Amino acid sequence: MTLDPTKLSDWQIAEVAEDSLTPITEVAAKLGIQSDEIAPYGKFYGKLDARSIISRLDKPNAPRAKFIDVTAINPTPLGEGKTTTTIGLLQGLGKLGKSPVGAIRQPSGGPTFNVKGSAAGGGLAQCLPLAPLSLGLTGDIDAINNANNLCMTALTARIQHESNYDDARLAKSGLRRLSIDPARLNFRWSIDFCAQALRSIVIGRGGKSDGFEMDSGFYITVASEVMAILAVSRDLADMRERMSRIVVAWSTDGKPVTAGDLEVAGAMTAWMVRAINPTLMQTLEGQPVLVHAGPFANIAIGQSSVIADNVGSLLGDYLVTESGFGADMGFEKFWNIKCRVSGMTPSAVVIVATIRALKSHGGGPEVKPGAKLDEAYTKENIALVERGCSNLLAHIETVKLSGVTPVVCLNSFHTDTPAEHAAVRRIAEAAGALFAVSAHWLKGGEGARELAEAVIDAAAKPADFKFLYTPDEPVETRINKIATKVYGADGVEYSELAAAKLQSINASPEFSKLPVCVAKTQYSLSHDPTLRGRPKGWKLPVKDILTFSGAGFVVPVCGDIKLMPGTASDPAFRRIDVDPATGKVKGLF
To answer: 137 and 144 in contact (C-beta within 8 Å)?
Structure first.
């Protein structure tokens, strides 16, 4: 069967392509991975022993791959193909005779079963096999859920016991009173679906044996601090230490209560022993891909893991890693948090754009999932594209601010016109970026040759990498730098709650030097998803500030962003099913 993306859905292409995949043990062997360093899960994917690979290959003067980050402009709700571009770039580099390795994030069940679909690529630029990747893979997200919810179980049980028992009774169980304030919890339950009904709940209803009645709630698993810890941990010892530092609540006298205080950090880490290792998969054309950590750079760090990047950099000549959403969110966190933790710096940064998203930022009609696109997006309109390039320019300037060469990748759709492509090329190149049009969705690696060549050229240029801020600057100074220099705000406004928390953070030597990981909408440079293009004359409203001391950052929560997304009225799960004769999953996209 000819694999034509214009006639076949992603899952149909994946179903055909999976019949000719290379066994994962052979993919690993070609990378120089030893047989005892991979544990296959079936025939086509498997867990790597990251500790063994790193200790064996990370020697003084050992060669390291050119490090490429893939980010984007602010997307429409349909997404602009960042993961698809990551996979396409790997395939394009393969066509040029290079030995690339990819590092992408594991898809979350939230978008997979909601509107956006699985983050497995698309068309002829997919990571395979599709169904396992989209439906839990090797269990990392399940492990994060269990570790997270074990911590909440320990926290809520401790509150119950402290409310029911005096100090002597607690001491008989070997416990000391932590005096946890039930109104000041810093942790929530997690579930990997968009379950808006669980955002705010009451738990512990019944009697004393049923727990302590109090307000609680859930966030989506990828927003859990445990997921963030997986993304930034260097090894198991580092992860164990970070788990113990998680601030789960505050005491009645204002002191932090940690997972270490609850004596649950070791058991949480036990759930993560297998999850700390990345999963090896492959592109539709056979290039190796490491899958690790999770998405949602709007409400989380949204990066493929430090461990996956470290492993991948030792196995190929180009490592292509992925950051969530636009450069204002994903790349900014890659730049100022992940690179600070890993010590790795990028050789080039790819900014994915589409004519559709540029037209939206130029003032085009609202793009709604499930609704037919307005003809403004399917007919040539150069003026609309040019106006929308204001958003692209902001992201180019952000990447240049880091000292790294940006490559604008125009992810080509069949409704684009040569004149629209030419307009974006002219504007991007005038701003100092390299530019490429890529047809990887339609043509796979062959369609990504121009992109691969541009990335090779960019990676050959000397970089002057520098962080946006230093840890010694006050937290409010760092938040202001992100708001003004990256988002284009005129300043920052704090709610009464956020201002009080900021004062407390600044007074704490433990928290005051942590990097900043902003939570805000992905659809705009601002906090307001309706403000497209490059908004002017606004200030960033910080409503709350969360403390993720285990992961190692503070999280300003801006605008109306939620750490638990909602499920739409026409979710993807309505079209996902199983062929009862074969057991194969159909309808994934």
So the answer is: no
Q: What is the CATH number of the domain that holds 321?
A: 3.40.50.300
Give strand ranges (E) for 137-278: 180-185, 189-191, 201-203, 214-216, 218-220, 247-251, 256-258
DSSP state of 588: -
The parent domain of residue 542 ranges over 475-558
User: What's the total number of domains in the chain?
Assistant: 3
Residue 582 lies in a domain: no
What distance in Å separates the CA atoms of residue 148 and residue 191, rounded to the nearest whole number? 10
Alpha-carbon span 349 to 320, nearest angstrom = 9
Q: Check if the beta carbon of residue 310 is closer than 8 Å to that of residue 175.
A: no
19 part of a folded domain: no
Q: Give the number of other Cβ atoms within 10 Å of residue 211's Cβ.
A: 17
Q: Is residue 79 part of a domain?
A: yes
Domain presence at residue 40: no
> Do residue 346 and residue 243 come from a single domain?
no
* C-alpha to C-alpha distance for 435 and 384, rounded to whole angstroms: 19
Amino acid identity for residue 412 in this structure: S
Active-site residues, by number, are 82, 84, 105, 116, 297, 325, 413, 441
For residue 358 the two structure tokens come to: 């540029």
pLDDT in tens, the chain (589 residues): 578 998 999 889 999 999 899 999 999 999 999 999 999 999 999 999 999 999 999 999 889 999 999 999 999 988 889 999 999 999 999 999 999 999 999 988 888 888 777 778 999 999 999 999 999 999 999 999 999 999 999 999 999 999 999 999 999 989 999 999 999 999 999 999 999 999 999 999 998 899 999 999 999 999 999 999 999 999 999 999 999 999 999 999 999 999 999 999 999 999 999 999 999 999 999 999 999 998 888 888 999 999 999 999 999 999 999 998 899 999 999 999 999 999 999 999 999 999 999 999 999 999 987 788 999 999 999 999 999 999 999 999 999 999 999 999 999 999 999 999 999 999 999 999 999 999 999 999 999 999 999 999 999 999 899 999 999 999 999 999 999 999 999 999 999 999 999 999 999 988 999 999 999 999 999 999 999 999 999 999 999 999 999 999 999 999 998 889 899 888 888 888 998 999 888 888 7
